[in-house]
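example protein:
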Amino acid sequence: MSGPIRVLLVDDDALVRAGLTMILSGADDVSVVAQAADGAEVPAAVAAHRPHVVLMDIRMPRVDGLAATETLRARPGAPEVIVLTTFDADEYVLRALRAGASGFLLKDTPPTEILHAVRRVAAGEATLSPTVTRQLIAHVAALDGNTGRHHARHLLERLSEREREVALALGRGRTNAEIAGELFMSVATVKAHVSRVLTKLDLNNRVQVALLVHDAGLV
């Protein structure tokens, strides 16, 4: 993308929004273009300010972050969404990830990690370190009984052998560069495989692929 990463902050706590604005505005490559206090304000804010990334609180009084994420990510060309939550075992995080959120951040995440997460999401990578991402996916996938292992494996059968290897690497929280090193291919080739995996599985980001791999019991 050209220019700074455009960020929309959505949280009903004005102090949280102020803190995040201070953190993000200190970086030359990130710009907070708008704020919203409720999920109901998100569609208009996105249309007006065209952010690349939305930092979305879960619990808000009128329209919560889950419903707002589902509505937003169902639209073509939607920005990436990072869910903000207080607890790493929040029972609603899985629904947000399945709705198309790229991941989550705890509200007490150190400032440097918040900036790193925003940059990674804007670049199409995972929102957190591979280790933390794997822990989250393993935890929330274990809590969800709605998606059967058989169904998940059936979906993965749509992939070629190479695409399946890439999908399994995504399930292990690998970055594009790490996948390239493990599978002896260029980063550009990895990106092409990831794109085909998303298309064949009818998913919109790599976190959803990772969740599907975990549902299939392959990681």
User: Anything to note?
Assistant: The radius of gyration is 17 Å. The CA atoms of residues 39 and 152 lie 31 Å apart.
